[in-house]
Structures are given as structure tokens and as C-alpha cells.
């Protein structure tokens, strides 16, 4: 088949599929269109037609379409399946410990992709639409959160785990063999004390069950069982304890054993998880997971430093704004139990080695305890009751998307924006409105918070004044320049 024939068939395929999607055809026309599409597929089973084939199958065989689509991605091993009921989808996603994704299909609405960005987190959900569009949305989330591992990465990590298990098993076998030899030495010494002859000693080691030599497999299993029974249970516990100690890299077992597994955070019970890379540290560090309300962890992560859990509520909470390498807001980090600001800064920086910190403030637990379930409440507390401890150069605070009125009152041409470009906002009464920032908002609509510069109405700023200043500036207008011009006008 030449290129021109392929182009003509693709054009015909698109025409037929559009007719099916519009749902304006008669039953006879629908049947004829489907038959013709199947004929084309039979003629052209080549990669150039895969996209059209999946698009058609999503209309007639959505489950097969979803499975075929997942097979062509880099994240097949993280795919949790095709679903038509939300409850079944949620159960499949949340029963897996690691991140994953799944497809939800509705005959009229189309497709959604549900993505778990991290273990024990609430799913992120795409808009209804084509399967390919939903997948492009997932790729945008992957670029933002780096939450899914590719099949290649998952296979490599599995191979690494298998290679690490082998030396541990070898060490256990060595301990067991050594224990068997030691026990035999004890038997020999005991027999010598009782004046038992060497021949009789040999009989002590013989199995008590008679073995049929014609069944070698049973013989080997019986010998293995008897050798295992000879090992003292205390010795086995000692071996297990020894291996566990080596695996813990020097962790103080007394600290772990006396550390409660749960911590009460106001109305929520948090599970404590010791961070593996801090096991050998003098200051143990725990991550707190709130299983009953996993959506809280979408906007704040809690950590507890130290093993003395009696006095943490009386110490300051160190609250940080976390952002990625592009300057986009990720979430807040809350560190409990730190002894002093220097220790808190070092710990938060160490936690954040893959990302960046914008600023750190301290706040009392009494102030934070009633307001961490929503990102808007954390923002208000962070700005009104927290004290600055440290901030990065050219620091720009972040404001949650929910607090912004997206409608722009004064229309003018804005300069190009990137992820570090702030919004210019005006606070009037109980609303926060946009002066400059439409291009910034359009970069990635799914962001949880944006960098901002805030002006307030009670400082004498009016929309008429802003309009006059805008009219004097040459388009496109830069956010920082407009902010400085308004500030200059107020001071004059």
C-alpha cells in the first residue's frame, strides 16, 4: 500500500469516526460505518493506524481500547485497569501502596484518567474527553509531580531488591550451619562426659525415621527437616535479630521500641513512619500519614523530629513553602518537635533535596492545629500568625487558587509569563481580584497555588487609578513594572 492510499484511508476513517461520535446517524448508517471501519482495519494493521484504531475501539469496545492504549505507554506496570464505576476504580487504586493510574469510561461523557500522585494520596482526576487528551493531562501531572515510575525503572528496582536479598539469605544460612556445628560439638562433649562411645555419638545424628532409598526427593526433604529441627529456637531469634540489626544501619532499637506508632493531631490520628535514610541519624525523623483524611496530604506533609514525643506540642511548628525546580508550588511542609530554628532549617533542607524551599516560618501548634485541613486556612495562618525564620533570595509568597477571583476587570496586553511570574492582585472587601496574571494562570491551570504580589484597597488604590497607570505604560505590560508604578503612585 502506497502513501497516497494510506492518506485516503486515514481521511475516510476520520470521517466515519466523526459521524459515529456525533450520534446523528440512523441505525443502518451506524452499522454500515462500523463495517467499513472494520474492513479498513483488516487492510491496514500498521502503526500509522493505531491511533485511529484505538479511537474507534473506544466507541465500540472501550475496555479493549483502554488495555491496548495502556500497553503502548511507558507506564503499563502502573496501570490499575479499565472501569465504568467510580467505586470500583477507587477501590482498585487505593488498595495498591504505590502510585498508579486507571481509566474511567462513560458512554456519553467519554474518558477520565485517575492518577494517584503518591502513596496514600487522594486521586487527581482529568476532565471528561478523549482518551488521548486525558493521557496528555496525565503527562502534565507527571512532569509536575514525577509520581509514576516507568516500566523500565520498576523492573530495575525489582532486580535490585532481588540482588540485595541473596546476601541476607546466605548470611542466615551461614549462621544456621554454624549453629548446627556448635550444637554437635556440645553433644560430643556431653557424650564424652557420659562415657558414650563415638559410634553411639554418630547414632545421635541419624534421623529417627527410616528412609526409603528408592525415593531420593523425600530423603532430602526429611534430612532438611531434621536439620532444621535441630536448631535451637533461641539461636534462630538471635540470628534474625543479628540480621535485622545489620539492616537497620546502626539504629538504636531502644528508640524505635519506645516510639509510639501513632500520634494525635487534634481530631486526626496520624501513623508514624521512620524515614529509612535517617535511621542511622542521632535525630530520628518520622513522616506522619493521616489515613482517615488522605486529601489533607495533598497540601501539607507532616514530619516529627526526635524520639521524645512528650513535649512536641509545646515547641514551635516550622512551616515551609515547597516548590519544584521551575518555581511551581507543591505543598506546605510542617516539622514538629525541632529543638531550635537552625536544626529545623537543616532538617527541612535535607528533606527537600529533590525540590526547593521558598521560605520557612514558625507558628505555635495551638494556632495551626485547628486550621490545617484546608490549604486556604493554612495560607491565612501562614501570613497572619506565623513568624519568618528564613526565606530564599527573591522570595515570592504563594496564594491558593481557591482564593482568587479569576475574572480580570481591566483588559490590557500582558508580557510573556513563566512559572516564576507572579500574579498582581487587589484585595478589596473579602475578595481578591486579578490585576495582572491571565497568561500566568494559563500556563498550567491545575496548580494548587501561585506566586503573587498583593495590593489592598484600603491603601487608597482604586480601579480608576490602576486604569490610568495602565494607559501610560507601553504594551505588553510586565507584572513587576506595573506593581512598582502603582506603589510609586501611592507613595507620591
UniProtKB/TrEMBL annotation:
Source lineage: Bacteria, Pseudomonadati, Pseudomonadota, Gammaproteobacteria, Moraxellales
Domain of life (superkingdom): Bacteria
Protein name: Uncharacterized protein
